[in-house]
From TrEMBL:
Keywords: Lyase, Magnesium, Metal-binding. SUPFAM superfamilies: Phosphoenolpyruvate/pyruvate domain. GO terms for biological process: oxaloacetate metabolic process. GO terms for molecular function: lyase activity; magnesium ion binding. InterPro entries: C-C_Bond_Lyase-like (IPR039480), Citrate_lyase_beta/mcl1/mcl2 (IPR011206), Pyrv/PenolPyrv_kinase-like_dom (IPR015813), Pyrv_kinase-like_dom_sf (IPR040442). Belongs to the HpcH/HpaI aldolase family. Its cofactor is Mg(2+). Mg(2+) binds at D167. This is HpcH/HpaI aldolase/citrate lyase family protein. It comes from Chenggangzhangella methanolivorans.
Length: 328
């Protein structure tokens, strides 16, 4: 039975992805290092060498002890752990202090593989966010099978499903190209299928990371498409991406006004507002999502796009020992 209040999927916003060995991990999960950070994933999988996993687990242990006695948790972002295996997830879930985490990201989730994840968190309040990043999700029937499996196990355990763009591209022998959004390449149809089959079944989805750190213009274009597809958040691999991502998921004043008008009990069957037709019968679900998004992401101060009014040039990535230092 779930005891903790279930967060809104829209509360994910920009989800900062970081290795569990990060030097500033405690300040970050407390919300002190990056004000406005809404959610974070502490990774024990792809971002760590196998020789560093024990250090990562020790860090998680220290976090549970520190946060358990933290007097003010309201300013904390949502905290998810990406374990290396289901067995590791099961062990973490059994920690007495695992309540400080909001749930697990289930890497490489696939049809036929979710029962073990549900078993791992049974008897806890921990939520799941499966990452859809394997070749099965190129197949519409694979998506259908996964959807039906999760519905059968219980949809309330899943806060959102994460689209793993980099791994999907890797299965094609491809990677990101500067100047091109996710929707300009072979994953456009995949995102469309995921949105159609999973979104229509009531599941929320989050957008893949944009890994080109010095291409703010393309990030802006991709975010607009993410929002248009109904995605509820986006993975960030560097703090410089937090502000533009969160700004993109704010609701425009015009959309908020339209949503409220559509939801009015005495709304006309069809009316014109801000140059567009509004039809409550068909637009009610959209309006409800707009209001829910505005409640946690807020309303934009201007009808300008965030690229015109908010975004600054991305800083150069910092290289340490030949590896990109993310989330510093």
């Amino acid at each position: 039975m779930m005891l903790k209040p279930r967060p809104s999927p829209f509360a994910l916003g920009a989800t900062l992805y970081m290795p569990a060995t990060h030097i500033s991990i405690l300040d970050i999960v407390r919300g002190q290092k990056h004000p406005g950070l809404k959610s974070v994933v502490l990774c024990l999988e792809d971002s760590l060498l196998s020789s560093h996993v024990e250090v990562g687990l020790a860090n998680l242990r220290q976090i549970t002890l520190a946060l358990k006695v933290d007097p003010d948790r309201d300013g904390h972002p949502l905290i998810f752990v990406r374990p290396r295996s289901i067995d590791m997830a099961r062990k973490i879930a059994q920690w007495n202090d695992s309540v400080v985490f909001d749930g697990f990201v289930a890497p490489k989730a696939c049809p036929g593989g979710m029962t073990s994840w549900y078993d791992a968190v049974a008897g806890t309040d921990l939520l799941l966010m499966p990452t859809l990043e394997t070749k099965e999700f190129f197949d519409p029937f694979g998506i259908r099978d996964f959807r039906d499996e999760v519905i059968g196990l219980g949809r309330d355990r899943v806060l959102a499903m994460r689209i793993g763009g980099n791994d999907l591209l890797a299965s094609l022998g491809l990677r990101r190209i500067a100047g091109m959004t996710l929707y300009d390449g072979p994953l456009a149809s995949v995102v469309g299928n995921l949105t159609a089959q999973l979104g229509s079944a009531g599941f929320s989805l989050t957008a893949p990371v944009f890994e080109i750190l010095d291409d703010a213009h393309t990030l802006s274009a991709e975010l607009a498409r993410d929002v248009a597809h109904g995605l509820v958040g986006k993975t960030a691999i560097h703090p410089c991406q937090l502000r533009p991502i969160n700004a993109a998921f704010q609701v425009s004043a015009a959309d908020f006004e339209a949503a409220l008008r559509i939801l009015e009990p005495v709304a006309a069957a069809v009316f014109k507002l801000n140059g567009a037709m509004c039809e409550p019968t068909t637009h009610r679900a959209w309006a409800e999502k707009i209001v829910a998004r505005a409640e946690v992401q807020g309303i934009a101060n201007s009808r300008q796009s965030y690229l015109e009014s908010e975004i600054s040039v991305m800083p150069e990535p910092v290289i340490y020992g030949g590896q990109l230092a993310i989330a510093r």
